[in-house]
Amino acid sequence: MEFNLKAVREEIGISQSELAKKSGVGRVTINRIENGEVDTITSRTLVRLAKALNVSTDTLIQQ
After folding, report:
1. Which stretches make up the HTH cro/C1-type domain (predicted)?
2. Does 60 map to a domain?
3. 3, 40, 57, 63 - which has most CB atoms within 10 Å?
4. Distances in Å between the alpha carbon of 8 and those of 22, 36, 48?
5. Alpha helices (H) along the chain
6. Distance separating alpha carbons of residues 26 and 23, to the nearest angstrom
7. Residue 36 near residue 26, CB atoms below 8 Å
8. For position 14, what pLDDT does the model report?
């Protein structure tokens, strides 16, 4: 599964560190997701990231 996290985060204009603080998800984890180093993430992590970015979880999942 691929994620649109980096594109969405950059469009909003926040850094990985800022997103980590807002979401409670570690910056290293965010970096690994953005660089395609993980195949799946937990629904909890996906929801935290989506809420912090004020987008739907579907927006973060590349179809």
Report:
1. 5-60
2. no
3. 3
4. 15, 15, 14
5. 5-12, 16-23, 27-34, 43-53, 57-60
6. 8
7. no
8. 97
Cα(54)–Cα(14) distance, rounded to whole angstroms? 12
Total structural domains in the chain?
Answer: 1
Whether 10 is covered by a domain: the verdict is: yes
For residue 7, give its domain range.
2-53
Compute the CA torsion angle 42, 56, 53, 16 (nearest 10 deg). 40
Tokens of 27: 């910056």
The CA-atom distances, in angstroms, between 3 and each of 11, 37, 41 are 14, 11, 10
| Per-residue pLDDT at 63 exceeds 80 | no
pLDDT given at position 1: 78
Q: Would you state the structure tokens that stand for residue 63, as one six-digit string?
A: 């179809």
Residue with tokens 């965010």: 30
**CATH number where 35 lies:** 1.10.260.40
